[in-house]
Amino acid sequence: MPEGRVAGVLLAGGLARRMGGGDKCLLELSGQPMLAHAIDRLAPQVAALVVNANGDPARFAGFGLPVVPDVVAGFAGPLAGVLTGMVWARDAVPDAAWVVTAATDTPFFPKNLVARLFAGARDADVAFAASGGRTHPVFGLWRSALLDDLQKALVEEDERKIDRFAGRYRVAEVDFATEPFDPFFNVNRPEDLEEAGRLSELVE
To answer: pTM for the complete prediction?
Structure first.
């Protein structure tokens, strides 16, 4: 897989209402913030990595990565994060033909995510991860060439749904095993963080 042609984007722009607000990705799991877990997993898989987050970027200063806010105002959701990553990659990694996105509240996503998505993409424009009968569109591999279309959809058409936008193009789904647990388990509530602590004992 031509890893040098894939730029990585960690999506950390959510409002975390079910966790009482704030940055979910800064909550501690197994002695370090969930964002650190996400960085450790995705950084080796990509040519360059950025954090997409709104607000004061200084709170992420200790992670050593560039931080970019949504290029579309108004907390437009993860699709805005995809666009933001594409815009960043266009300037920072101009030879990147693909952009991969990953959620920062999913601390155990696969270490071979990019390789598997890339292999599954074949002639598709977008490849999404799936597990347990569910698609995870925030874990997606996108052709960088979709940037202009995505910007138009967000700005002029007010499109907010990842799967609905992706449905305009050729989409591949790549299924991941759910044993010994679903690698796309995500932390939405305080009890999920407790469960993540238990699952961390099973993680490679």
So the answer is: 0.93
Q: How many domains does the chain have?
A: 1
**pLDDT, tens digit, 9 for 90 and up, residues 148-172:** 999 999 999 999 999 999 999 999 9
Instruction: Read off the CATH number of the domain in which 40 is found.
Output: 3.90.550.10
Domain that holds residue 28: 3-202
**Hey, how many other C-beta atoms are within 10 angstroms of the C-beta on 197?**
12
